[in-house]
Amino acid sequence: MPIKAFSVTTECATLPAMTTTLQVTKRDGTASPECIPAVVYGPKQESLALNIDRKTFEKLFKEAGESTIISLEGLDGEVEVLVHDVSFNPVRGGIQHVDFYAIERGKELTTHVGIEFIGEAPAVKGGGVLNKALHELEVTCRPSKLPQHITVDVSVLTDFEEVIRVKDISLPEGVKVENDPNETVALVVPVAEEKEEDAAPVDMAAIEVEGEKTTSEDGEGKEAE
Description:
By secondary structure, this protein is mainly beta. It has 2 domains: 6-14 and 110-190, CATH 2.170.120.20; 18-105, CATH 2.40.240.10. Helices cover 13% and strands 43% of the residues. The protein has 3 helices and 15 strands. The strands form 3 sheets. It has a 6-stranded mixed β-barrel with strand order 3-5-4-8-7-6. Strand 6 (69-73) and strand 7 form a beta hairpin. The relative contact order is 0.18.
């Protein structure tokens, strides 16, 4: 039976963008195993090859993600950036390269901000499963307005007919979402019940009893003699 979907409004909590620092050096050749090769570029930033300390960046990226403004130190001047892309080694694992995008203070930028789900959906207790359909939003705002992440409370999902959509999330002033307003963020779907297949009736007459078959064959053999 299809589910009728009704949007529900959820309160959205946002944390302001964090700003942290990262020491970098210009890279002339191959990065050492203790470093990750990186590059920084932007509208008013010439492309520069960099080395960054592996352990320091891995810790920073794990804690802050892509929506944190990072101030690169060790260049000719301070450069504020966002993590634009991180590539991983497909064989050994681990980060193998990082792209930084230099932002301009006071000018809007478009980037992705992660969604953090909180609360418990009452519909789950009614035999459903929470489906988190969207894990980040694409937003446009000034760097000073960039939220660290967006928190969505799923406790408003009281039955299977309710859906949280992008348009239901209240964003802070100065932040515009670029996703389709009707895109689904979260909903609770009922668990499908497995139907037991009825066993086919057994035709007892078609079953050959091994002993009877042998006796019959022996009898036919004697008559033939």
